[in-house]
Amino acid sequence: MKHDWKASAERIAATLLGQTPDRVPVSFIASEDIAARISGLTIREMLTSSKKLAEVSIGVCEVLGGDNVSVVVTPYCGPYEGLAFAKANGREDLFVWKDYTTPFIREGELCPTEADIERLEIPDHSKLEPWPTILEAMAIVQETTGMGGGFSPSLTWSSIQMLRGSRAYMDVIENPELLLALCEKIYASQWDYYQAYCKVVGKPSFAFNCQYAFNRTMLRFEDAWKFEGQFIHRFCRETGLPLAIHNCGFDPYWVELIERHQSGGVQVIAVNGSHPLDLDEWVRFREKFPDIVIMGASLFVNGELENGTPVEVEARVRENILKLAPYGRFIVTPVCCMPWRVSLSNIFAVRDAVERHGRGPFSRS
Predict the structure, then answer these.
(1) What Rg value do the Cα atoms of the chain yield, rounded?
(2) Pairing of strands 268-273, 104-105
């Protein structure tokens, strides 16, 4: 293989343990858009077999040059969970395939009424495609590279909104019990996904979950906990898995959410987000939570990566490294997925900047 995955695994492991890696790790969230650009394949062509999906996924991650690898049909945000629900309930017509970007289910059309929620059938992830293909590809990627171990459920507000639509926001106030019933169905589906994952890929070492509801621009904290947070908390308690939190929102409840999880006995091992954009706030976060890995921290896809030049991207990466690498447990990560409008030269500038500036020693300013 072109990429030294063993070195990447050692780099990531050292970072997670608070040790000093040979250089600061860099990771990319490789989803359908960037995979289609690099491979030249449509999404359905990637999904023709588990071997094809695994080969494309490894190849794309090697081109990006990061220290992480994953299947490129990202399951954690839910499009293929939406397809599974649609198939299980005889409504595959609601799913919209795209050739070179992420597909989606027509939002809110599967569960528009209370009766729809009551009769919603739970999908069998071991049988409904593309899940068997995705799971087998995950196993191939893990066996081939020695990388993996993270399980990404969809216990997130986006799954609620995918099935219920914008009505979900009114349900928070007007019909919370109905919304909780839908949340329980989503939880049952994700538990089925977890069991299928364990059979094919093996037991994971941590959960990586999107906590989209935990933004001040979306919901009050207690509502976010009621309809999203408590479910991933329960999942981690029942599986014994530590939690890495993804939140690409503009005003996250980072401190409140971590403290709530910790108070209930769930270990938070990493946060993955761009906001706040003020690096000094991330330094204060690091001082408050010294054992939590920071993945991202102000490296915003819709900032320099979309609108800047490679020189500006390098300057931002260098600033992040100088501010946060001295404290350890830091991984350079553009947040979030990289759409077509982000130039490849800017994406590669992230990798190159880490190679230039990511080797210590570092000193705290």
Answers:
(1) 20
(2) unpaired
